[in-house]
Design a protein that fits this description.
This protein is an all-alpha fold. It has a domain of 58 residues: Orthogonal Bundle (434 Repressor (Amino-terminal Domain)). 56% of the residues lie in helices and 0% in strands.
Length: 97
């Protein structure tokens, strides 16, 4: 018996603001900048990479590159993408620190 599989596409599951926020929050908690960049890339794909790039003020190609596993986006790019996807950063005190 052969098992059929389908390719996983994270962007298919990022269909609400709450899902997007929870996904990005989990990526930020991981603490790895590459995880955060890839998560933002998945969110941008779900929202439409061309529109996000335009709203963030960079080219689509530059956005793909910055939000890849090998990318290292500038803070201005990150902030532009966060705004373009309809989120905002908040800061809280880490009780464990």
């Amino acid at each position: 018996m052969t098992i059929e599989t389908t390719e996983w596409n994270t962007a298919d599951y990022l269909t609400s603001g709450e899902a997007i926020a929870a996904y990005l929050e989990a990526a930020l908690e991981d603490g790895d900048p590459k995880v955060v960049a890839v998560a933002l890339g998945n969110i941008a794909k779900a929202k439409g990479m061309t529109n996000i790039a335009k709203e963030a003020g960079i080219t689509r190609e530059a956005l793909y590159k910055a939000l890849s596993e090998k990318g290292d986006p500038k803070l201005s790019t990150l902030l532009g993408v966060i705004k373009a996807i309809g989120l905002r950063f908040t800061v809280t005190v880490d009780k464990a620190a």
